[in-house]
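Dear colleague,

Thank you for sharing your sequence with our group. We've completed the structure prediction you requested, and as agreed, I am returning the results in plain text so they can be pasted directly into your records. Please verify that the sequence below matches your submission; if there's any discrepancy, let me know and we will rerun it promptly.
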Amino acid sequence: MSGQPYPILGTKVDRQSATFRDNREANLAALGKLDAALAQARAGGGPEYNARHVGAGKLLPRERIELLLDRDAHFLEIAPLAGHKIKGHTAGASVVGGVGVVSGVECMISASESTVNAGAINELGVTKSGRLGEVAEANGLPSINLIESAGADLPNQSKIFVRGGRGFRELTRRSRERAPTICLVFGSSTAGGAYIPGMSDYVVMVKNQARVYLGGPPLVKMAIGEETTHEDLGGAEMHSRVSGVSDYLAEDERDAIRIGREIVAHLDWKKAAAPTAREVEPPRHDPEDLLGIASADLRFPFDAREVIARIADGSRFSEFKPLYGSSLVCGWAHVHGFPVGILANNGILFTDSANKGAQFIQLCNQSDVPLLYLQNITGFMVGTKVEQEGIIKAGAKLINAVSNSTVPAITIMMGASYGAGNYGMCGRAYEPRFLFTWPNHRIAVMGGKQLAGVLDIIKRESAAKKGVPVNEEQLELGKKMIEAQIDGESEALFATARVWDDGIIDPRDTRDVVGICLSTSYTVPVEGTTSWGVFRH
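Please find the predicted structure tokens below.
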């Protein structure tokens, strides 16, 4: 084991302060809402449909995943609240997916939520499945698909059909990259869904349950006049003994899961990268404090170092340029033994902090160190002084560095994520390997009050140019309406429902979530770059 020479961060947190207590109370309340939403998502189709599913002798989708996983192994669920409170959707988008450990191997696991509309996939399910595929591809993970689906949600086919084809393409491309897909078929997998087992590297079908065909008996009769049965047309035994679409015939669901674990075991899977071994130390400061540190009211800042001190191994942090660009904290740490370069907001981005961030990203790429972005940013500074200093050039330099960096990046949104600050701190559009948020997170072009104020100024200027009087009552009503709209659309639950992130996490779990993400990222080589294009000077 190598030693760890990094300095230990101290703390100035006062657990008795009114601010700490207020933050903790508000964050616990937000976590209560999150838990209620997650409970709804995990309930699948609800008691009636779950009972019908179990009554047919089947395991529930989450039970299938639990049996597939190694005992006491982690399962980092991705986008569990996709579709939450969106009209026409159920929380979870009829898909359960995430990174879990099977036979000692981190895999991307996806299961049809067959208690919801027979597992039929809707447009948000396509989006979520696409995100699961992106995580698998970026990290070179083997995939395990637990299939029991009626296929596309046909009444909404116009929102699914074109985009949905990409999933099949990516599945075959992952096979080309030697990241195999294992498909366990527990029930129907019909029409376009039949291509999931058809394009997988390994296929297991459950006897007397699996039904895989391009067209079911009614369609066959209508199309060619042939009378047939589900089993003759696409049953597990037929595909295992006659067509060869199935590689393994499972006696029941538990046997299918056993075979799936056996397949992963014989892959003899090896990670392509590993960091220098380090002793893993728990933080010296209690992660429980994060509930009192994270501002419930984002108008009030908090020190990012207090967060780092509660997620880094031993609370050790080697800070870069500590006297320069103070609104962006940069430095090196380890999380669960993995090296990481941290960029954390400590205020609005100025010219010096943007330049500092770009240089730090270059240094981490030079030494093949993954990046962790801790976002709490209202944007870049504005005004004559900073414009003359070249804030646009500095911001462009930072975004260039973020865009062209090739080491794994993980983003945690622990507060505000407004405007170009979202871009400069590796928001979703910049393809971090993983992106999670805290419950206090807010995301938008700008805050509701600021946006409403800007529109108010524009309307007043427009009225002045036209020489017409301002209707103060109407303007005030409009401000309140737009402020309420933007504030509602900025909330963490609104964002995660639309798969703008990979999920909302309890701040106290941040260290473990980041550790799993880093472990997963090391499945493929971790290689930085020295190619950045043109920096404007």
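Summary note from our side: The first strand starts at residue 75 and ends at 77.

Kind regards,
the structure core
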